[in-house]
Amino acid sequence: MNQYFLLKSLHIFGAVIFLGNIIVTAVWKALADRTGNPAIVAYAQRLVTITDFAFTGVGAALIAITGPLMAEQFGGIGATKWVTWGVRMFVASGLIWVFILIPVQIMQARMARTFATQSAIPSQYRRLSSIWNVAGAVATLLPLANLYFMVFKPA
Fold it and tell me: Among 29, 63, 80, 153, whose Cα sits 20 to 30 Å from the Cα of 129?
């Protein structure tokens, strides 16, 4: 098998599990939060952490490794606009994850462990959920826009 097609296959697989997980996780976390049931919210929060490492992390790693290797076929990362924009959007999304979403998820996971068996979810958890929802929407829209650049390769 041609090395480029192997890299492309791994890249697409990474994109599928990356995008699939961030979209599905956002939906079911939002639905769990809406129940107001501390046990359901705590369970969903635990799964957000697990699936982010298992799918978002693995997908992002595959994208980060295979993308630059494939970019060499097009002259490197800075050689074409669509590759450059793709890398910028991927990095911007990653920065949002590292500096906002992951710290918020860690705080929420710690809180969820304590309120899982209680009758109320603290207001601080809900404030953190609002931050997670807004930052998560931006961090999701960037890779979706990136998908356009990778598929259509605009000049």
Answer: 63
Torsion of CA 78, 84, 90, 96, to 10 degrees: 90
DSSP 21-70: HHHHHHHHHHHHHHH--HHHHHHHHHHHHHHIIIIIIHHHHHHHHHHHHH
Of the candidates 51, 66, 65, the one whose C-alpha atom is nearest the C-alpha of residue 17 is 51
Render each residue's pLDDT in the chain as its tens digit; 155 residues. 699 999 999 999 999 999 999 999 999 999 999 999 999 999 999 999 999 989 999 999 999 999 999 999 899 999 999 999 999 999 999 999 999 999 999 999 999 999 988 889 999 999 999 999 999 999 999 999 999 999 999 98
